[in-house]
Amino acid sequence: NMDGYEVCTRLKSISQTQAIPIIFVSALGEVGNETKGFELGAIDYITKPLSPPVIKARIKSHLTFQQLNQELQKKNQDLARATKLKDEFLANMSHELRTPLNAILGMTEGLQEQVFGEINNSQTKALQTIERSGSHLLELINDILDLAKIESGRIELELTLTAVAPLCQSSLGFIKQQALKKRIQLETKLPPNLPDLLVDKRRIRQVLLNLLNNAVKFTPEGGCITLEACHDKCPESGSTDYSFLNCLRIAVTDTGIGIAPENIKKLFQPFVQIDSALNRQYAGTGLGLSLVKRIVELHNGQVGLTSEVGEGSCFTINLPCMACPLPSPELEAQPKHSIKLSQPKQEASPLILLAEDNEANINTVSSYLKAKGYRLIVANNGSEAIALAQAKNPDLILMDIQMPGMDGFEAMQHIRHTPNLVDVPIIALTALAMTGDSDRCLAAGANNYLSKPIKLKQLVTTIQQLLLK
Known about the structure:
By secondary structure, the chain is of the alpha/beta class.
């Protein structure tokens, strides 16, 4: 009462049997019959009269294919588990590394501002050395995390219309002091009315800084570095109308040590440095240029390099432009209202609740904020934060995310469901810094999000902005 088609249909509808390979054997050799069999899930259709050797060969072939398919599925599952474990490892390592760096850089910043008392010139120089070393460690951590995000496809570009000339000038400002120490001359070639770029401004600045830092690192004393921006057709046509052009070229040229042709391809591979002797002489992880290439390619752009040993190198990035760009302003727009980091008046000193479980970070943040005139109360976990917030009704809450017991996410959700705390400003402080962390913080109820190690001046600015609202 049941033909082969119905048997196949039922077998494929049952979870325990749906993976079993089915081969139809039939005297019905019309195309329609074969098609129906394959549509129902059969892996083969053999017509009578049968040839035992052919049947045996086909069965063997299908069983081999099934085994390979199962092995592939298992490898994919293992890969997915490994990827998840890697993401968890990176998130945990980010937290474990950023937490002590937050205390180191925070205390250094506070000491240089003399919030703990006066310091002399030699102490200032020592603190600047500590700050530079800590900042270098932070850059290495950020490079590793950024590369992991890009390779996993979990990085999202925040595209905004960006003026090229101010972006180039501000990037040069970051390396100016390093260049002055080596008496390196910095030059720019930025023609007027360059088209604006629709890019992730922070990421493209990261690209320029990587290229400029490398140029300073590998250029000897008394050398020269040039930052140039132009359109591909600009040098030929001499036209200042860029509406018909579709690509902007930014070049960083140096008079450094140069690169041998056989080593150029290696430069853009992660964790690769072309010479062990150079590795000892010039510190670095070998991640910078790999990040440059990946970030530019995320913008549908290209990276190029020409170099000659002993003469120098020219790194170029080509980025697509808008069809009808707006003229770039000469200077970046300034905020209408600047917020002074002045000490709050004592009679109106805001009360801040700091939820943090790390003692070093508690001392760093609380000492700095108290020196700026704020009153502080401290909770060591989410439950304490909720209780203190309900009892003391603070003017603002600084909420760490990873705490023992109840974490910051859950604590913020509870606070937002408390009637008298619905509108209290919350700044989330986290050392995770992974993709989606900021969105999770804002969704849980935070008004703002700062990634550790935090800049204490930036923290005070953010506090004052929220309190003014």
